[in-house]
Automatic annotation (TrEMBL):
Residue ranges of the TM segments: none
PANTHER family, per database record: SARCALUMENIN, TRANSMEMBRANE GTPASE FZO
Domain of life: Bacteria
Protein name per its UniProtKB record: Isoniazid inducible gene protein IniA
Native source species: Paractinoplanes tereljensis
Length: 647
């Protein structure tokens, strides 16, 4: 029992190279206003969290509120493995209360507090989130041997079920004047990942700070190196929860250039915006000073400066430390709440472009624009196609009637109209009827194709806009194709043949008779009569051929005139039909366009009304969100005012 109470609780040695500032712990000892101000700000912050439905923050802030009102100052000592955390606590109170050694270390948190008589026990908490405080609910309590505390703690933890290890912590009480003022020291297991990586350490450190109900964090780093990037990140995260931190630079007795590394680490913390007091320490020098009673050596160990800092912080807790802590908590909490509100505000702005009503409005406007373009397209298409159709039908009729005329010319080149007219006229009428029916039937097919072509200019999502019927071809082909009367032709009568033969034979008799008269024969003799007969027959034949050619020419001219008349009539009927088809399709598609336009306009009105209603609701939410952000800004300003101090 002597070893627990032997040795001084503190030495008044020379000042350690600590540089107090507004954000450092030395500044927290200054006097400030009464507790009512920071308590009002904290309660307002808790109410705001309740209004925002953040029960997690409410629970956490209530816990911090209770801890700030508690007279004890709980100091969480953290760091990576083999950095000297446990040695720091042992040297600080001059008692081997924490497990140290090369082959073993801290496996469960150890709370060191003041008691009138030494005591030690291993506590099994009722739940993993129960705090490490004497008044917290506990499931079991296992006494530990005081004369071999480190070994007893290690052995007892080793035999506990694995499922209960996370609920274990050691509670050690020692009679020390340093602790009697309300200081409680908490040794913690090594932070995972450090000094290399930070994420796991950050999460674990937040759990330790919550479970330990910590008011202050001492981060331990051995001398001989600078703080790593991961350690700076961990300290930056802690600075969001605590107004100031202590970085204990341990084992300075064996690091030759520890001052250089300490200054470099202090500069890194300043650059990172981390309010921390850096304290160089040597537990070995402290132990040696205790054994020899050497005050100078004790001052060189750095522990007097740390003790003074802790005592000042204990004294500052009810006022200045509480103010600064509430300032940090208020700033952190309002920032978290503001992030949620800003995200909600951004989501509302994004929703203004992606909401169903706005999408429907945009889609309706797009359909209206598409319908306007469609109206221009189908009208242009109808006009172009009708022009092409008229040209094509006229050309088709012309080509077909020309073929009939060519066939008629071919017929009357050889045949005698007087003999074949009846048979030819029947063929001509049938050929013209076929031309009319074929051409006008093709016109009907083109009309259906025209209707589909114009309907294709409408958007596919409008459905089927084809008319149920297409106007037929006007006029009856049989009425247009009339019977062709035989043209008047000259007939070669017997009288005409007789006179033509006499006229031709007279010349023959005269010429032959003159020739035969040279032989002494009379002018009219058998030979001259024979010549006259030959010449007369020739004249009859030539006159007959001439009359035939005249009849054929008259027949061809008559047929051409007849076919042209029929062509003109059929062309007129075709053009009239095309015009009627054009008007019918124009009226139909105009009605379709008007119906669609009315439907879209009605949908546009409805979509616009829905969008305006949604916009009004959204604007109201946005205004409320912005007002809440302004309120949070005011609350944060009050919190920052606590950080700035009185005046």
């Amino acid at each position: 029992m002597e070893s627990w109470e032997a040795g001084p609780t503190a030495y008044a040695g020379p000042a350690s190279p600590v540089r107090p500032g507004r954000t450092e712990l030395g500044a927290l000892a200054a006097s400030g206003a009464s507790a009512s101000l920071w308590l009002d700000v904290l309660d307002a912050t808790i109410r705001t969290c309740q209004e925002h439905g953040r029960t997690d923050l409410v629970s956490w802030l209530w816990q911090r509120r209770a801890q700030l009102l508690h007279p004890h100052l709980r100091v969480l000592v953290v760091g990576a493995a083999k950095q000297g955390k446990s040695q720091l606590i042992n040297a600080l109170i001059n008692a081997p209360v924490c497990v140290v050694g090369e082959d073993r270390g801290t496996t469960v948190p150890t709370v060191v507090r003041h008691t009138e008589a030494p005591t030690a026990q291993l506590i099994v908490r009722a739940a993993p989130d129960t705090g490490w405080t004497p008044d917290a609910a506990r499931q079991d309590s296992i006494p530990l041997a005081l004369d071999r505390l480190a070994d007893a703690l290690t052995e007892t933890v080793a035999v506990q079920p694995a499922a209960t290890v996370e609920r274990l912590y050691a509670d050690v009480g020692v009679p020390r004047a340093l602790l009697a003022s309300g200081l409680q020291l908490i040794d913690t297991p090594p932070l995972p990942g450090l000094p290399a990586v930070a994420p796991a350490a950050v999460g674990r450190l937040r759990e330790l700070a919550t479970d330990g109900r910590a008011d202050l964090v001492v981060f331990v780093c051995e001398a001989g190196r600078e703080l790593s990037d991961a350690e700076v990140d961990v300290l930056a995260d802690l600075a969001r929860l605590f107004p100031s931190l202590v970085v204990a630079y341990t084992k300075t007795d064996y690091a030759a250039h520890w001052r250089r590394d300490l200054e470099a680490s202090r500069m890194r913390l300043v650059q990172a915006g981390v309010p921390a007091t850096v304290v160089p320490l040597s537990a070995t020098l402290r132990a040696r000073a205790v054994q020899t009673g050497d005050a100078a050596l004790n001052g060189e160990s750095g522990f007097p400066a740390l003790i003074s800092l802790l005592e000042a912080t204990v004294a500052a807790k009810p006022d200045r430390l509480a103010r600064a802590t509430v300032g940090v908590l208020g700033r952190t909490v309002t920032e978290r709440l503001a992030v949620t509100l800003r995200d909600d505000l951004d989501a509302q702005r994004a929703e203004s472009e992606t909401s169903h009503a706005v999408k429907r409005l945009h889609e309706t406007q797009r359909r209206m624009d598409e319908l306007r373009k469609c109206a221009t397209r189908w009208q242009t298409r109808l006009s172009d196609e009708v022009g092409d159709l008229m040209s094509d039908i006229e050309h088709d009729l012309r080509e077909r009637t020309r073929a009939v005329i060519a066939r008629a010319d071919e017929t009357f080149t050889e045949a005698d109209p007087a003999r074949v007219w009846d048979e030819f006229e029947q063929w001509l009428r049938e050929a013209l009827l076929e031309v009319a029916q074929t051409s006008l039937g093709w016109l009907g097919d083109r009309a259906e194709w025209l209707a589909r072509a114009v309907a294709a200019e409408f958007p596919a999502d409008l459905g089927d806009v084809l008319p149920n019927w297409v106007p037929g071809v006007q006029g009856d082909a049989s009425d247009r194709v009339t019977e062709l009367e035989s043209p008047p032709v000259e007939r070669f009568t017997m009288t005409q043949k007789l006179f033509t033969g006499l006229r031709g034979s007279y010349g023959g008799v005269l010429m032959v008779g003159l020739v035969t008269s040279l032989t002494g024969m009379s002018l009219i003799n058998p030979i001259s009569l024979s010549g006259g007969a030959v010449f007369g027959g020739k004249s009859i034949r030539e006159e007959g051929k001439s009359l035939l050619r005249r009849r054929q020419a008259v027949a061809r001219a008559t047929v051409r005139q007849h076919v042209d008349e029929i062509y003109v009539g059929l062309a007129k009927d075709a053009k009239d039909s095309v015009r009627r088809i054009q008007r019918a399709l124009r009226d139909h598609f105009t009605a379709v366009t008007e119906d669609l336009q009315e439907a879209i306009i009605e949908s546009l009105r409805s979509a616009k009304a829905d969008a305006e209603r949604e916009a009004a609701v959204r604007d109201g939410r946005a205004r409320r969100t912005e007002q809440e952000l302004i309120r949070l800004a005011g609350l944060q300003k009050q919190a920052l005012g606590l950080l700035a101090g009185p005046g």
